[in-house]
Design brief:
This protein is an alpha+beta fold. The protein has nine helices and 13 strands. The chain folds into two domains: 130 residues, Aminopeptidase (3-Layer(aba) Sandwich); 166 residues, Aminopeptidase (3-Layer(aba) Sandwich).
Amino acid sequence: MAATVFRRPRQLTAVEILDLRHFSSADLRPLLAEEVDSWGSLLCWDYRSSAEMILRYVDAKILPGYAAVERGNIVGYTFFVYEGSKGVVGDLFVSPRRIDTRQIESDMAEHVIETLQRSPGIHRVEAQLLTHQAGHLAANFTASGFQRYSRLFLSLALRNHGPQLPALELPQDIQVRRWIEQDYNPAAGVITAAYRGHIDSEINDQYRTHAGSVRFLNNIVRFPGCGVFDAEASFSAIHRPTNSLVGLILCSRVREDVGHVTQVCLLPEYRGLKIGENLIARTANSLRTRHFNLLSLTVTEINHRAVDLYKGLGFEEKSVFDAFVWQS
């Protein structure tokens, strides 16, 4: 699907919003260097590998999106992807050195929203912009019919900040062990069951089906969609009598010394047994023994039970960002 090019006379700046596929990695690289710095300072993430992947897609002319261009220089960009009948906004960034950052971000957001909502066959659009504070682009999305969900970015200091998290006593029929490749397919079933009727399945529709959960796992385990998967810090909860998977925690390395929980969930009938706390403790302690400094995760704000659990384990709120969903 081709991204439409807009040139609106109402714009207050001399910036043009043009199709990203008109440009090369050389054009975009200086801006992405600024974005790498931004991810590092805001989230303690090393964004360099993601930036290089974006640049490869730009050179291949297969990444739909827009560039904000002023006198031949790219000062902002955004991209999105198509997944069947769904569009996903992947990123939106403007140089923080601009005094008109908000205006350019707003213009690019409008272009992306309009393009995705008008794309043939697209009936759903999702967006989560971790580096944007909650409310930052809310007006653009909600005015176009998007539902808005507040999400929290939490982190736990691991080095020189007290003892390891205690491994709480587990039910006798539950074993927690390291993640293995054979857990892959059962994990998709656990994710689907765990998120049935859950608020997060409203935000990410991959959780609603087994096939969607498999795609989700592919993105975080087999591809660098969110850092580099860390099998040593990923664990599975097993029901001993049936040798079946009932819960899991998956962790990726987003910086040399920073881990990020990409997924933690339990089958509903196993909640309230301290299994989730055990899984998180295992991940945190695995990272701590390997001299990691930080563990982070995200959680939907109205999921009070999960928020209370994480904060009870010592996680601190670092930022609040928005998730947006549109359904035709």
